[in-house]
Amino acid sequence: MQQPPSPQALAGVRVLDLSRVLAGPWCTQTLADLGADVIKIERPGSGDDTRAWGPPYLQDGEGHDTSEAAYYLGANRNKRSLAVDLSRPEGQALVRRLAGQVDVLVENFKVGDLARYGLDAQSLRAEHPGLVICSITGFGQTGPYAERAGYDYAIQGMGGLMSVTGERDDLPGGGPQKVGVAVADLFTGMYATVAILAALRHRDATGQGQIVDMALFDTQLAMLANLGSNYLCSGKAPGRMGNAHQNIVPYQVFEASDGHLIVAVGNDRQFAKLCDIAGRPDWAADPRFATNAERVRHRTVLVPLLEDAIRQRSRAHWLAALEAAKVPCGPINSIAEALADPQAQARGAVVGMEHPLSPALRVVASPMKLSATPVQYRQAPPLLGQHSDEVLRQAGCTAEQIAAWREAGVIA
């Protein structure tokens, strides 16, 4: 007999998702993975912008492109889609009705835009004091930049990340670089998830909801982490270090005889083991290199010595020897290699889901491993308006009302 599915931590929590692109959908997908019922509100006809952000697109059973972009599929599983025209009074009334039936509303409209529809946080909270509303914008609800649109790329630049990402200016290829994925969006989505869960905890204790004001710019500043702290303690802004670490040496990419590898020495014991493997135990005893602080100060002396030594042998030799000695190291994999790695396979990093347009949809799994309330992959990223009738019937709307709204173009 098939066992019933395990309970989920957020079962019973309902979320109205008025967000699109990445930061908001990443937040709501995380909530959905944990068991929340997420209703994704989309514009009839086009839906979330990322549905068209391809190629690549999902392919059907015959290998032909469908209408669903891979970008969209990466951030919208476990949700239901309701296509509603918010420019119409009937559509606005529908969303206000739904807002009274959920626990959380997430939106990433520009500051002030939802007020035109009577869907701004203050209006909704006045009517539904237990509602948790999370607004995600580029710069937040206050400050001189509040009305600006915010995009991950620009935020990475404005928030200091690109000043510490990329090769040094004095080396070939030097200059600012963005990170390869939209980290400001993704971090904001994760911080928003944490804040929403905290607000729900408060709501459960007091009955009162609240407004969560999340900004990509604020998040980017926070995620500078140790580099922001470096500046505040020293008064000196860190610069770009390429693949090296600001505070630890050796902690960077090295070139072996047949390829590159990462060596990430985290303490003096590990450094001594590295020196033994390199056949140079004298380096660990050298006062210039004996402690991390001295290695950082004498980086320009030590690193060339290590480069010469590592270049003499193959990548496989170094990886095997370093792993055996428990010195942190690793290869530099492509995404294909990373997802095919035995560890990724063992951890279930890729999950298959049944999609209406393809039986072979695969998605990158959630990294959250909960022993009692595991993540479940209940539903593939929805087609535009796939659940409009279902959601509206559950909201108490009649078949006649739904048919009339569809005929008038209010829903799809």
From TrEMBL:
Pfam families (alphabetical): CoA_transf_3 (PF02515)
Keyword set, alphabetical order: Transferase
Presence of keyword Transferase: yes
InterPro entries given in the database record: CoA-transferase_III_domain, CoA-Trfase_fam_III, CoA-Trfase_III_dom3_sf, CoA-Trfase_III_dom_1_sf
Taxonomy, superkingdom: Bacteria
UniProt entry tagged with the keyword Disulfide bond: no
GO molecular function, one term: transferase activity
SUPFAM superfamilies with a match to the protein in the record: CoA-transferase family III (CaiB/BaiF) (SSF89796)
Entry protein name: CoA transferase
Species name: Pelomonas cellulosilytica
